[in-house]
Design goal:
Distance between the termini of chain B: 40 Å
CATH architecture of the largest domain in chain A: 3-Layer(aba) Sandwich
Oligomer: heterodimer
Helix content of chain A: 10-25%
CATH superfamily of the largest domain in chain A: L-asparaginase, N-terminal domain
Number of helices of chain A: 9
Shape of chain B: globular
Radius of gyration of chain B: 28 Å
Number of strands of chain A: 23
Structural class of chain A: alpha/beta
Radius of gyration of chain A: 26 Å
Strand content of chain A: 25-35%
Largest sheet of chain A: 8 strands, mixed
Distance between the termini of chain A: 67 Å
CATH topology of the largest domain in chain A: Rossmann fold
């Protein structure tokens, strides 16, 4: 067997007494993959192949044809991971993610009709691998672009999208141009992918006058409407559906219809106050999901290694009374302990039950209707840039729309 | 001249036979058979992006998808997987086993690992935009008494959505059928005559059914045919629903292809040109007596004439039908009113008008002309299509995908290039190790030949044994013979029982039980067959009636003359409208079938209706209502077609 085969080479294979030709795709220690003329891949056990012979070498294709860079108000697309644009090489079956603006336009042919596109892939990581330092890098990139008045669309994996969108919301104050996140729940190699509409809608919103960080994703499982969510009020609420993202404790700030018209509801326009970027973030903040049976030792570990701790408590914001003395101890060490609710919907209220009152007395900060993840990024942002008193004050102050006093649902 | 199909190797036919597998759907836990009621809908669009060489292809696809919207109706037997809102689950163990068993029955080598692929499908019939499909068996040989046919591959794939409505830019599908497992058997092009094709399809069907996992609904088995004759191109024929249709359709298709080759021979000697001279004839006086053209003009359409240099006599004379070929291409884009000079005088255009028009467009011996009535602004597209088909006529048989009809085939679209496929990464490779395959081998049922030989050993005549397998009453037959002896009589009796289009399995199973318990002398079966009535001990009666068109049904009456099987023996008349409701539902559920086969769908649909109302209504009333409803539907479809 020849060992120097490359994907795309034409080969002839003898397998279980049959001889046939195909395109060599790959081989590992157990299996050789060939693609038949009919398009099917065959994964053959190496042990069952009696011979594999090169017929002709693969002739690599030229680069993609140059397309127009697009017409319309310019938008910068920042790729951070999770593919939102890709194309399939059916000859080998390889799915190729778009890495340049040229490829982005090729893979998203309608974009050129909407905007003059420039694109850059700043990082390509799974969103669960995202670190706080990555938020700072992304913020810097965005800041550079919007300083020139150009709207930015950031593509991101869906899993931790709402962490990043809220971190960017805090790190950039008074953005001078739209900052719009988007993602896809179905990979863009599929004809049915939500990526196509999501990206078009996000680019459209990046051409608007929106002055708060937002996220554009499907409103329903139909390809007929997108919701524009505030970057600090949304959460992924389904592991696989297109309409996984929901605004919690607030309405989406607008929608984009299937003709890409934007319908605003209640949104912040770009304002004339000076734009500012914060360049620090605290690495010493933790997020704990309280559960019955959770022991004191675990709380110790979290509190000892961090300067601030967000606890997603039960119901109105409770944890076991066993934790009350511990909380008191840590607060006396100038650590910040904030409470949110696992219910996500609704606000914490520590005045109703005795446990809540005990926690308040011990010094926890009730964080209103802020989502646990948002409270976590906010505290990380505040501890990185402000002193303790200011951090405590701002934690319960609405600075980017992350807290509301009124809820109607 | 062509010398025909007596030279067998001139014709090459390959079959693609699809069987639905019963049980759960391929990639989720929904049951294919259950819960078809509708639960709301959602809409999607599809986009295809590819990095392939022939970007023209892709551009054409993107163009065709522009503005196209698909609506999917959710059903009780569909879940997030069918909605493309959740990754596929691993395929069902039994389903995969069935595919392996079928591969073994057909002498295939089983793959080492099943590797599911995504095959791009852009007509919206799959919510994902692709069909998941994987090869299970390869390179088999299937033998019948007289013939050996190569089996290219056996694949396991998901069934597509059923189309409910096509509104042009918006197509409505139901999720009911999506995801039902399909086994596709592709033969090599080793078949040389229509009769052989039918026999092979029948034998493969019989062999595969021995697995006991093949669904039995009217639409659950479909055949596609590939056929080419020497000097022509491959033509794919889609959607052949029955065995008898295979032979008919192929015979017609061979005639068509032969005549196209002859036409090409003739035209190469003539001055044929695709340089067509066009004139707007809307305001001329030729059409005042022509309903077709006058009514078109009245509704705002225009009439154009154009030259067809060199085509006289091949458009429509004797076996030559190039005119129909052109008309089919036009109809595929919704242009209906095409008439050519070979058909004239007709349509209210007399000989005088014909020769005057003819003079306008050349008037040479071989020159023909065409007339078309269509919406203003579509003439360029129309001429382009005509030109394309005229040029192809010089070459012979164009490579096309055609649809099966009752009297042959009709153009659907040009034959697509090789399919666009890439790996389905959501489903891990499924290794089929030798230990597992050994276990499955033990599940392979006896072959048809083995089973027939066994039934013969019981004294059942060979042909009756075959029939019993084909109609799936071999088990009943076996138990009859074991209980009562006299195999010939039992076989004869049961062949009558099962001669209905849809076998009355319940009645027969009941009867079988009755016979075994009641110890009824076998001689008694004869009067039943002869006199259609047999009195059981205690005054009960078995009645064989022939109220169902094309067959018989069996009834058990109790001592008071009341029916014991079914809901009520007394025939009702449909005063409540219940019967009409049932018929309408059947007609609606089978809209696609009716569209394809028109009034010929009657027999199949009658079977479905009878299944629900057998014994409740007079057969005549049922058939009248059904044929009326089918006719209404066919007429409606034609009108809708004209509108487009």
């Amino acid at each position: 067997m020849s060992d120097d085969l490359e994907a795309g080479d034409r080969v002839e294979i003898k397998w279980k007494g049959s001889t046939f030709s195909g395109t060599y795709i790959s081989r590992d220690s157990r299996i050789t993959v060939v693609k038949l003329q009919s398009g099917y891949n065959l994964s053959l056990d190496n042990s069952s192949i009696s011979s594999i012979q090169l017929l002709s070498k693969h002739v690599p294709k030229g680069p993609l044809k140059e397309g127009p860079a697009g017409k319309g108000k310019p938008v910068f697309i920042l790729g951070t991971g999770g593919t939102i644009a890709s194309y399939v090489d059916y000859e080998t079956g390889a799915v190729k993610p778009a890495r340049t603006s040229q490829e982005m336009l090729y893979a998203q042919p309608d974009l050129a009709k909407i905007a003059a596109i420039d694109a850059e892939i700043v990082m390509n990581i799974l969103s669960e691998d995202m670190q706080k330092g990555d938020w700072l890098r992304i913020a810097k990139k965005i800041y550079d672009k919007i300083s020139q008045g150009e709207g930015v669309t950031i593509t991101h994996g869906t899993d931790t999208l709402s962490f990043t969108s809220s971190a960017i919301s805090f790190l950039i104050e008074n953005p001078k141009a739209p900052v719009v996140f988007t993602a896809s729940q179905r990979s863009p190699d599929r004809p049915s992918s939500d990526a196509f509409l999501n990206l078009k809608g996000a680019v459209k919103v990046a051409q608007s006058d929106v002055g708060q960080v937002c996220v554009v994703m499907h409103s329903s499982i139909s390809d007929d409407e997108l919701s524009i969510h505030s970057g600090v009020r949304l959460r992924k609420m389904h592991s696989s559906r297109r309409d996984a993202f929901k605004s919690i404790n607030s309405e989406p700030i607008g929608t984009v219809d299937k003709n890409l018209e934007i319908h605003w509801r209640n949104y912040e326009r770009i304002n004339s106050r000076p734009m500012k970027i914060y360049e620090n973030i605290s690495e010493r903040v933790g997020l704990v999901y309280f559960y019955p049976g959770m022991n004191e030792e675990l709380l110790h570990k979290f509190a000892d290694t961090n300067d601030g701790l967000i606890i997603a408590g039960t119901g109105l914001g409770h944890v076991t009374n066993r934790f009350v003395p511990l909380v008191k101890e840590y607060v006396s060490q100038d650590k910040i302990i904030g409470i949110t609710t696992q219910c996500l919907f609704g606000s914490v209220n520590l005045d109703v039950y005795s446990t809540g009152r005990n926690l308040l007395e011990a010094g926890v900060i009730p964080l209103h209707d802020m989502l646990p993840e948002v409270a976590y990024t906010k505290l990380s942002f505040l501890l990185g840039n402000f002193d303790l008193d200011e951090t405590k004050r701002l934690m319960t102050t609405n600075i980017r729309g992350e807290i509301s006093d009124r809820r109607t649902e | 001249m062509r010398f025909l199909i007596e030279e067998q190797n001139d014709v090459k036919i390959g079959l693609e036979i699809h069987f639905q597998v019963s049980g759960r759907k391929l990639f989720c836990e929904c049951k294919g058979e259950e819960g078809k009621s509708e639960l709301g809908a959602f809409t999607r669009r599809l986009t295809v992006v590819s990095g392939e060489k022939s970007e023209k292809d892709i551009a054409a696809i993107q163009e065709s998808m522009k503005g196209k919207e698909f609506q999917y109706v959710k059903t009780e037997n569909s879940c997030l997987v069918e909605m493309d809102e959740e990754p596929p689950h691993p395929p069902g163990k039994e389903t995969l086993e069935t595919a392996i068993i079928v591969s073994l029955i057909l002498g295939c080598k089983i793959v080492d690992n099943v590797h599911f692929m995504r095959k791009i499908v852009i007509d919206g019939s799959n919510t994902s935009g692709f069909q998941r499909t994987g090869i299970v068996g390869l390179h088999g040989i299937f033998k019948t008494d007289s013939k050996k046919v190569g089996i290219a591959s056996i694949t396991l794939e998901e069934e597509a959505c059923k189309k409910i409505r096509d509104e042009g830019n918006r197509v409505v599908y139901s999720l009911d059928r999506l995801g039902i497992p399909l086994i596709e058997i592709s033969t090599d092009p080793d078949i040389h005559t229509p009769k052989e094709a039918r026999e092979i399809a029948q034998s493969i069907g019989l062999a595969v059914r021995q697995s006991g996992m093949i669904r039995r609904e009217a639409s659950s088995i479909r055949q596609d045919l590939n056929i080419s004759i020497r000097g022509g191109n491959r033509v794919e024929i889609k959607g052949v629903q029955s065995l008898s249709q295979i032979e008919k359709v192929l015979a017609k298709e061979i005639e068509r292809q032969e005549s196209l080759l002859e036409i090409a021979d003739i035209l190469r000697k003539r001055a044929v040109s695709a340089n067509l001279r066009l004139e707007d004839l809307t305001s001329s006086t030729y059409f005042k007596n022509s309903d077709l053209f006058a009514s078109g003009i009245k509704s705002g359409k225009k009439v154009y004439g154009f030259s067809l240099p060199g085509l006289s006599g091949v458009l429509n004379r004797g076996k030559f039908r190039l005119g129909r070929e052109i008309a089919e291409r036009l109809r595929a884009v919704g242009i209906g009113g095409f008439v050519h000079s070979d058909e004239l005088p007709n349509y209210g255009i007399d000989e005088i008008a014909k020769s005057e028009i003819s003079l306008k467009f050349g008037g040479g011996d071989y020159d023909a002309f065409g007339l078309v009535v269509l919406e203003p602004g579509r003439i360029e597209e129309c001429i382009e299509i005509v030109q394309g088909r005229v040029l192809e006529s010089l070459k012979g048989v164009p490579a096309e995908t055609r649809g099966a009809t009752d009297n042959g085939t009709r153009f659907l679209r040009p034959l697509p290039g090789s399919s666009r496929m890439y790996p389905e990464t959501d489903i891990p490779l499924i290794p089929l190790d030798s230990k597992y395959l050994k276990e499955v081998e033990n599940l392979v049922p006896p072959t048809v030949e083995q089973r027939v030989a066994y039934l013969e050993s019981l004294g059942i005549p060979r042909q009756e044994a075959f029939n019993s397998l084909w109609k799936e009453y071999d088990d009943v037959l076996e138990s009859f013979v074991k209980d009562y002896g006299n195999p010939k009589l039992c076989a004869k009796f049961l062949s009558v029982v099962y001669s209905t289009e849809v076998p009355d399995l319940d009645a027969a199973r009941f009867l079988a039980g009755r016979f075994s318990k009641g110890n009824i002398p076998v001689e008694s079966l004869e009067p039943l067959y002869r006199e259609r009535e047999f009195v059981l001990p205690k005054g009960k009666k078995i009645i064989l009636s022939n109220d169902a068109p094309g067959g018989y049904s069996l009834w058990i009456q109790d001592e008071n003359g009341k029916e014991e099987i079914g809901t009520s023996y007394r025939m009702k008349s449909d005063s409540s409208g219940e019967l009409v409701g049932i018929v309408e539902k059947v007609v609606q559920d089978n809209e696609e079938l009716i569209r394809e086969r028109g009034e010929d769908s009657f027999k199949l649909l009658m079977g479905s209706v009878m299944k629900q109302v057998r014994g409740q209504y007079e057969g005549r009333e049922i058939s009248e209502i059904l044929s009326k409803k089918i006719r209404e539907r066919v007429t409606k479809g034609e009108q809708a077609g004209q509108k487009r």
